[in-house]
Request: fold
Amino acid sequence: MCEHDASTAQGSGGAGAAGKVGGAGEAGMLEGVAPAPGVRAVVRRCVCSGTTFEEVNQMLRRGLALGDVTAKTGAGAGCGACGPYLRLVQRSGRTAFAVLPPEVLRRLDQGP
Reply:
């Protein structure tokens, strides 16, 4: 499961002022998608491994493939809840995300 904190989804990857998540930098995957109803938490790490999305992003920028990051850190190898968020880190470079509704997470799991 991914860690959520009580801060609003702002800054490096959450919902903007309009309450929407994502944008063109993610190839439109989240364009106009609202966070899960009633949830104002931010997903920033894999809870199973304790690996932050910032750490994942740094490894990806150094040229590691996402599978290699998972093998090295365990992020995405536990319960699997952070898998869609890890792919968003890979696609966008963002490291914090609003909690997304299950239907959006399923769509992200299916790939581009």
